[in-house]
Amino acid sequence: MGGYFGSYALVFALLVIGVAIVAGALMVNRLLRPTRPTPEKLTTYECGVDPVGEGWAQSQIRYYVFIYLYVVFAVDAVFLFPWATVFAAPGYGMTTLVEMFVFLGFIALGIVYAWRKRVLTWT
């Protein structure tokens, strides 16, 4: 297979072969597996607890706040690592230092706000 479209034909052929192998494996699995559905197997499984009542439950907002604070700290860590490498570069020292302290100031302001609103208490 030569030429420009030969490369595409090779990729297409490999794609068809890969899909055929996966589909064949799934079909063989379906033919060879035992099929014995019981009422216990067909019930909804939820973390080992038997499902009782409706599927709707309320969640407290504090869990979302903890997740939000985790995302804030993760973003903070993502920005700190590149900053540490640029800080050592000549000519960027003081500029990057001021920018990072402004960034950390905003993060600290958010933490202080959450602390003052008593969001970080677990009771």
TrEMBL record:
The chain crosses the membrane at residues 6-28, 63-84, 96-115. Its EC number is 7.1.1.-. It is a multi-pass membrane protein. It catalyses: a quinone + NADH + 5 H(+)(in) = a quinol + NAD(+) + 4 H(+)(out). InterPro entries: NADH_UbQ/plastoQ_OxRdtase_su3 (IPR000440), NDAH_ubi_oxred_su3_sf (IPR038430). It is an enzyme of class 7 (translocase). The keyword Cytoplasm does not apply. It is found in: Cell membrane; Membrane. Keywords: Membrane, NAD, Quinone, Transmembrane, Transmembrane helix, Transport. Its main location: membrane. It comes from the Bacteria. Belongs to the complex I subunit 3 family. PANTHER family: NADH-UBIQUINONE OXIDOREDUCTASE CHAIN 3. NDH-1 shuttles electrons from NADH, via FMN and iron-sulfur (Fe-S) centers, to quinones in the respiratory chain. This is NADH-quinone oxidoreductase subunit. The lineage of its organism: Bacteria, Bacillati, Actinomycetota, Actinomycetes, Streptosporangiales.
